[in-house]
Amino acid sequence: DAGVIQSPRHEVTEMGQEVTLRCKPISGHNSLFWYRQTMMRGLELLIYFNNNVPIDDSGMPEDRFSAKMPNASFSTLKIQPSEPRDSAVYFCASRGGGTYYEQYFGPGTRLTVT
Amino acid sequence: QQQVKQSPQSLIVQKGGISIINCAYENTAFDYFPWYQQFPGKGPALLIAIRPDVSEKKEGRFTISFNKSAKQFSLHIMDSQPGDSATYFCAASISGGYQKVTFGTGTKLQVIP
Hints:
Chain A is mainly beta. Chain A has strands at 5-7, 10-13, 19-24, 31-38, 42-50, 53-56, 65-71, 74-79, 88-95, 104-105, 109-113. Chain A has no helices and eleven strands. Chain B is an all-beta fold. Chain B is built from no helices and eleven strands. Chain B is globular, with a radius of gyration of 14 Å.
């Protein structure tokens, strides 16, 4: 299995632009998580999907952030409009029923907003 | 109450030494405690995990010690190697339902030759 796939790996954009991050979870996994990692705040959970349904979005910082999971093999995290304080590494992770607790992380997308 | 406190923030250990990272939690409902290892430019990966019904779990050079009464757990890396240089996160979770994982703030370990 290729593992969790994220794209792009790096994104540089200007303040005010829309940014879309993409994630393909491991085939067969039914849970998907989006995290944000910064030096100041560490690893923060943004949103959790189970069977394509958002279960907990309490970590989404504000209305500028939105996430979708239209099917079991694809999810997006969108920031509109982006701000410099959104600069971080964004990780997607998936978890399957057979691996009860373990989350498998993707390589992350490093976002820089100038 | 959902926090997991981790220390130290950074750690430098000589090759062959023992690396020790400590974590503490408040929520007694936590019943699964994984440790994740993250190399630069990579996502975190599960290293080792423990349930509170045991006091210690060992996998190779990595050992988790768990003190339920003190609500503390720690990771020991024996015979530390330069290849162990990474950031380590402790975490805690509650089984059943959502199983949200609460992560510690991370410890950056550097093992010097």
